[in-house]
Every structure is written in structure tokens, then in C-alpha cells.
TrEMBL record:
Cited InterPro entries: APOBEC/CMP_deaminase_Zn-bd, CMP_dCMP_dom, Cytidine_deaminase-like, dCMP_deaminase-rel, Deoxycytidylate_deaminase_dom
Protein name, entry field: Cytidine deaminase
Source organism: Persicobacter diffluens
Keyword Zinc: yes
Cross-referenced CDD domains: deoxycytidylate_deaminase (cd01286)
Highest taxon listed in the record's lineage: Bacteria
Length: 164
């Protein structure tokens, strides 16, 4: 039996965590790891204690902001970073595994938090119909090691939720 590497393990975990999302548009999961240990996880959705979009607004989801994004959603990578900081975990020098490349606002947070590496599963630009992944470009410009995951997670062999 071959041993999976940590990139495969953490990306598979991020894909599984994405399945926890209540968003009706897109399920996104994130894992924050440091020194081969998980320090936090997150998935996209409204702040804890507010509502679940798929339950409260099953047909349309929550209202949209001026750019067409969910007005209440916190992105998966934001949730992972916020939870780590809330629990006094040191995120400096950590690696973020996320199922969708970071948007530009998330990229700014990632950079400011001192995360050194980001591995993403799918392109945010392709999902949103944008010409480029602005968040990826931003992180590269400022020296963050960021790249698309090139492995084949075990979960890919199963039928993944179409929203992931």
C-alpha cells in the first residue's frame, strides 16, 4: 500500500469539508496546516448563528451584494484563518489548501496573515467567468508560493457534489 502525501490528504479533507457548506451556489472547503499538522478548517457560509442559506432561502440563496456575490457569506479560507486566530493558533508560515482559488479580498487576508503557501483545486476565474485569477496573481506578485493542485484526490473517483 502506498502512503499518500500530505498535499493529497489535506486537499481530500478540504473537498470533504466543502460538503458541509450550506451555500446553494458553490461549496468551498479549506484546510490550514503547519508543520504537517492541521491548525484549522473552514467552509463557506454565513457567520455562525445567523442562518443557513439552503434552509432559509432554498430557491435563491441569500441576497447578493453589488458584485453579485453572497451578501452574508464568509469564504472558506477566511473562516479557516478566523477560527485559527480566534483559538490563538499561529498561522504565520502555514500552508492553506482550498478547493477554489482565493479571490482578491481573500488573497489580501492570506498575505496579511503570513501564510506562506497556498494550494488550490479549481480556478476562481473559471468559476466566475473572469479573465484571470486576481487572487493568485496578487499572491504571486508578493512572493507567496501558490499553485494549482495537480494530484488526483481519492474523492475524485467517487461522484463529487456538483457544487464543489
Amino acid at each position: 500500500m502506498s502512503r499518500p502525501n500530505f498535499d493529497d490528504i489535506y486537499m481530500e479533507l478540504a473537498l470533504n469539508i466543502a460538503r458541509r457548506s450550506h451555500c446553494i451556489k458553490k461549496h468551498v472547503g479549506a484546510v490550514l496546516a503547519k508543520d504537517t499538522r492541521i491548525i484549522s478548517i473552514g467552509y463557506n457560509g454565513p457567520p455562525a448563528g445567523t442562518h443557513n442559506c439552503d434552509e432559509e432561502f432554498p430557491g435563491t440563496g441569500c441576497s447578493r451584494d453589488s458584485k453579485g456575490s453572497c451578501s452574508l457569506a464568509i469564504h472558506a479560507e477566511q473562516n479557516a484563518i478566523l477560527y485559527a486566530v480566534k483559538n490563538k493558533s499561529d498561522v504565520e508560515g502555514s500552508t492553506l489548501y482550498v478547493t477554489l482559488a482565493p479571490c482578491l479580498p481573500c488573497a489580501r487576508i492570506i498575505y496579511s496573515a503570513g501564510i506562506k503557501k497556498v494550494i488550490y483545486y479549481k480556478s476562481y476565474a473559471e468559476y466566475k467567468g473572469l479573465p484571470c485569477d486576481e487572487g493568485v496573481d496578487f499572491l504571486r506578485k508578493f512572493g507567496i508560493d501558490i499553485h494549482k493542485y495537480e494530484g488526483a484526490p481519492f474523492l475524485e473517483k467517487e461522484k463529487l457534489d456538483p457544487l464543489i
